[in-house]
Design a protein that fits this description.
This protein is an alpha+beta fold. Helix content is 22%, strand content 31%. It has helices at 53-62, 68-75; strands at residues 4-8, 11-12, 15-22, 27-31, 42-46. Strand 2 (11-12) and strand 3 form a beta hairpin.
């Protein structure tokens, strides 16, 4: 069973914009595209390379102290 390393939950203009990083490196983006029922509760799987630096920093900030180094490695933040 995989474990969650970091979960960043945010709302933008009343729309969900949540990211979850798992220990296998998968990132789940759960979001609302718009306020209409057809645009709510969407999700997609992403790779670290597809994330903006803002999202990477959100996940790093959401990580526990114990997981912080692994999150940095998975997201490629050790290079900075």
């Amino acid at each position: 069973m995989r474990n969650i390393l970091a979960k960043s939950m945010m709302m933008k203009k009343g729309l969900d914009d949540d990211y979850t990083l798992f220990d296998d490196g998968e990132i789940l983006h759960e979001y609302d595209a718009n306020h209409y029922p057809s645009g709510m509760n969407r999700s997609r799987k992403l790779r670290a390379e597809e994330l903006s630096s803002d999202v990477k920093n959100r996940l790093l900030e959401a990580a526990s102290t114990a997981n912080r180094q692994l999150v940095k490695e998975i997201l490629g933040l050790n290079e900075a």
